[in-house]
# Entry
Amino acid sequence: MVKKDRKQRRIRRKLHIRKNVNGTSTKPRIFVFKSNRYFYAGIADDDSSKVIKSLMSKKNSNDIITMAGAFAKVASKYETLVFDRSGYRYHGLVKTFAEELRNKGVKI
# Structure
């Protein structure tokens, strides 16, 4: 049995999630990515293969909360959005970001 490393397992989870999560022009997809230093989030239209808006912040809760506020202004012109956690577990910074968007009035 071959043991897979953490990155390979996350990519496998991401592909499994992306089979069901798809953004359209009327219902775009919110995606997240975490590096060692920064937290990235963006809005994507998968039908036309375009990223509508993307933002980044440092990896701490206060910066992510302020980024979610700026992100909510852009996302407010859409009625609903689809949240793509990109294979990450729904806890910590990903959960903080999603809940803060919901608090700002974005329907996920």
